[in-house]
Design goal:
heterodimer, A: alpha/beta, six-stranded mixed sheet, four-stranded mixed sheet, 9 helices, B: mainly alpha, ABC transporter involved in vitamin B12 uptake, BtuC
């Protein structure tokens, strides 16, 4: 990764390919992400959505170019993690570790916990005892403690209860709109994609596409991507 | 035991407690044992060359840690098979190269008087390991939860992983004179496992683990001296007894 994008782009990806041994996961993918925009990544299981985000954070080898603009601070929320249940690390330990690595004070931790809806008494328990939804909120809190200007979210609300999902989606939308964060998120919820994204990147073995939701989320294109009929009705309001 | 030797032993125990805490949290408990076996051929080579055995062990352990690190990017099964085969072979080779009293001492530790160079090595390495953990504990915690997330926090994950593995290997080297190739892994793992049962947070885990490791070493050495036995096995038995005692403590949270 290197920093040299044109002024309005936070991220420029060109001819990106990733392969694991003989399996080609991403092939010749190119797209740009404008500063302050919200990009939804959609596609069927196995299309390489998570691989794409992991490549963007520098975890995987690739060919092609990935250029982040200068001064980018990435907050990354990975998919479900395989954690040792009895690990004696509390949410506060985990968030304090982040502030210590960034040489910042721990003063902001309490407000971030409130922001994502984790009560303090839960944050003082070992993270292995948190529910899936609470842990997902913690990962979002962790990404925010680093004061990011780009958020990469891999199904951030998976396992979160319905009201919690709405709360977190609103939170991300607010951060994007009020603080100008650039957001790339993976989602299987087409209604959320439609509400939160101004661009959609679709990945599938059949085709890739990039454009505004109204152009991408058409029945024909969705059928091409998912390989079967996807019932989704776009409300014009 | 002289004051100097006692201080070296305590330094070793502190390092083992700290390194062990992260080994247990990283689910590396089973790796400690085969890795420590690699020290044996190093001891054999050092004896053949008439140099201090511990330095031969250090070279072999450092190399083994590098090998584990290099293999880590591969599939987990590949790494585990490689460790299983190579490190057990190392034990066999080492057993052929080292014989008689030397072999027993290398396997289970032996009293003997620490040479000046061994004491200096012990002090320096124990201090370096303690310093490394104190400086890196936050980065290690983040890496343990998710290496990918750690990368976005600006942590050089591969470098930190190598440093940790080398610190782990050096901790084994520190304990060879007291506990030997077969038992040092136990002093790294058992107090940390006990500490994990008793702790609710990172700092209490580290403190408990160090306290348990140091008390096992001190109490074990004292009992061994009283019974005229080698210290290593008694130290490990004391650590095990403390673990069994911790089982009596009522589990206080889910996930234990």
């Amino acid at each position: 990764m290197m920093a040299a994008t044109s002024a309005e782009n936070v991220l420029e990806v060109s001819h990106l390919s990733v392969r694991f041994g003989a399996t080609q996961v991403l092939a010749d993918l190119s797209f740009n992400v404008a500063k302050g925009s919200s990009v939804a990544i959609i596609g069927p299981n196995g299309a390489g959505k998570t691989v794409l985000l992991r490549t963007l954070v520098g975890a995987l080898q690739f060919s092609g170019t990935v250029r982040w603009s200068e001064g980018v601070r990435i907050g990354y929320v990975p998919q479900k993690l395989d954690l040792e249940r009895g690990i004696p690390i509390t949410a506060v330990d985990f968030l304090s570790a982040r502030t210590a690595v960034a040489h910042k004070s721990t003063a902001g931790i309490r407000s971030v916990l409130t922001l994502v809806g984790i009560p303090l008494e839960v944050a003082q328990q070992p993270i292995g005892t948190m529910s899936g939804g609470q842990f997902q909120r913690l990962l979002i809190a962790f990404s925010l403690v680093g004061d990011p200007n780009v958020l990469l979210l891999d199904e951030p609300t998976a396992g979160v209860d319905e009201p919690g999902q709405e709360h977190l989606n609103q939170l991300v939308r607010r951060l994007q709109q009020n603080q100008g964060l650039t957001v790339l998120f993976i989602s299987h919820e087409l209604s959320v994609v439609y509400q939160n994204a101004d661009h959609v990147l679709c990945l599938s073995r059949a085709r890739t596409c990039f454009g505004p939701p109204r152009t991408i989320l058409t029945p024909d294109l969705l059928r091409d991507i998912y390989g079967s009929e996807v019932s989704y009705h776009v409300h014009d309001n | 035991m002289t004051i100097e030797s006692l201080l070296v032993a305590i330094g070793m125990a502190v390092a083992a407690g700290l390194i062990g805490s992260f080994a247990v949290m990283k689910r590396m408990s089973l790796a400690a044992d085969p890795l420590s076996h690699v020290a044996l051929p190093g001891i054999g080579i050092a004896l053949a060359l008439h140099i201090q055995p511990v330095f031969g062990a250090v070279v072999m352990l450092a190399f083994a840690a590098l090998l584990v690190w290099a293999l880590e990017d591969r599939a987990r099964a590949t790494t585990e098979s490689a460790i299983g085969v190579l490190f057990s072979a190392a034990l066999a080779i080492g057993s052929i190269m080292t014989t008689g009293e030397d072999l027993i001492e290398a396997l289970f530790g032996g009293a003997g008087v620490l040479s000046r160079s061994e004491k200096v090595f012990g002090f320096l390495v124990a201090s370096a390991i303690v310093l490394f953990i104190l400086i890196s504990k936050n980065s290690l915690v983040i890496m343990m939860v998710s290496p990918d997330v750690a990368r976005t926090a600006g942590i050089d994950v591969r470098r930190l992983d190598l440093l940790y593995l080398e610190a782990f290997a050096l901790t084994i080297a520190l304990g060879l004179r007291y506990l030997g190739v077969l038992l040092m892994g136990a002093l790294i793992i058992i107090p940390a496992v006990t500490a994990k049962r008793l702790s609710h947070g990172l700092n209490s885990m580290l403190w408990f683990s160090v306290a348990l490791s140091v008390s096992s070493t001190a109490l074990g050495s004292a009992i061994a001296a009283h019974l005229h036995r080698e210290a290593g096995p008694v130290i490990v038995l004391v650590a095990t007894a403390l673990f069994l005692l911790s089982l009596l403590a009522r589990p206080q949270r889910l996930g234990d």
